[in-house]
Structure prediction request, 555 residues.
Amino acid sequence: MIRFDNICKRYPGTQDVLSQVSFHLDKGEMAFLTGHSGAGKSTLLKLIALIERPSRGQLLINGQNLTKVSRRRIPYVRRQMGIIFQDHRLLMDRTVFDNVALPLIISGFSRGDIERRVRASLDMVGLLNKEKQFPITLSGGEQQRVGIARAIVHKPSLLLADEPTGNLDPALSWEIMGLFEQFNQVGVSVLIASHDLDMIARLPYRVLKLKQGQLVGDGYPRRREPT
Amino acid sequence: MRRHSTQRQNHGEPRPQGASRGATRSGIRGYFTLHLSMAIQSLGRLSRSPFATLMTAAVIGIALAMPTGLHVMMDNLQKSGGDWRQSTQISLFLRAGINEDRALKLAQRLEQKADIQSVYYISPEQALAEFQSHSGFGEVLENLQTNPLPAVLVVNPRLHGSEAEALIERLKAYPEVDIAQLDMQWLQRLFAIMEIVERGVLLLALLLGIAVLLIVGNTIRLAIENRRDEIIITKLIGATNAFIRRPFLYSGIWYGLLGGLIALLLVNSAIYLLQDPVAHLTGLYGGGFQLQLLSSDISLMLLGSGVLLGLSGSWLAVGRHLRHIEPR
Ligand SMILES: Nc1ncnc2c1ncn2[C@@H]1O[C@H](COP(=O)(O)OP(=O)(O)O)[C@@H](O)[C@H]1O
Ligand SMILES: [Mg+2]
Prediction:
């Protein structure tokens, strides 16, 4: 699904923010990406989402080499993934429904398909009754769930989340994490950047640990090895 | 439904280069539905700030109305040129050897005619003096031994339409008359001036067209700037540049169309207001011509150029500014 092969990334005027990062995430696998603030988690996700380009190394997603994707092709690669941001990035002047419908509109789905899929997606995150509201009228957790509904509405094969629970209290965080597990169970690959070590430790998923741009850990939490 | 399964098949495998563009669209109809809904959406967006929209459209309208109005004026003047011929004078150059007495008698006889209003006599001496003072050949002419100019009768006809030609034929038949000539110098001068003005109008149209481009371009640039976050988010979700461009291009088209409509309204109102005074004025000169409202051809052209300028202006802005808005 995702293959990093000796990836280095430096921004103009910086040292390597990521250096020699190599790992492979299988189709249908769910993993966490941890590390202190500034370790390079967001940068790593941005490389996958083609927001940034690697300085060196090979990066493959679904077998396609991202380093060779032209600017024009970037949108079509992005449509294969769902991206969730810490700050939701919702369109504040559009209803919940319209926000969630956006990925479908972009791909030119028919109105009927859009309505059906948006409802299904909102149903999954438990916001079906709020489709006509504007994001500003929702709580932080609800806004994050709208962001998740938008990220999964087009049935992507890969879900990326950058600190999706960063601003939420523990109860809400668990709720959101439950959603990710749900998607993962139906075969979606999930990569979540998070520094919520407490929660990560209680979950049976693979953990990739970044430290100053280097991959220093790759394994499962000690307490509960997957069977 | 079919599209549904296509979409699912596409998941998890690399799409062939260039093949997926619009792959999920259901043919031509879906494409037009999409465009129509986008056009309506962008109109809806404009109507949410009606004052700002109208201001921009009004500026475009005025810019389009000025050259159009002038063009219409010139057009009307040229058409009416034919009508004004009837108020022209006819010069009768008399044969050499016709003396003043005979000339004046002829003048008197002509003045009796129903289709002639007045006749006055210019002696060869008067003609020479006038020519000397106007032509700049004064000194050359002073050295002439004899006066080469004939006596002239200037006839002010009372005419309608094409009767001038017939009258001239009749006047030519008098034995005293050598040459009868419709005096259209002033008309020719007018036409020459109008040609210059027409060029000026063209130049003005060009400049104002550029102004419209800049106005639309700037308005769209601001709209892009205002929706920067939205653009970034939509790009992150996988929108193509074409998709993001589209609503702005439609705004440009709407601005141009609205501007064109306003211009149409302005020019037609001006013509309507001027119709009576112009009819009165031409009535004084014996003409009877009416300013015409804009023809459907011109109206369509006006709207069309509004749309075209709006589209080009937004295209310029979009080309320059959208490219630099990328997610970070
Ligand atoms: N656009 C950028 N330009 C320059 N430096 C950047 C940019 N984005 C991130 N960085 C730097 O790269 C490092 C890693 O940042 P980031 O990937 O955001 O880390 P994390 O998400 O783990 O906190 C930080 O030192 C940060 O300052
Ligand atoms: Mg970060």
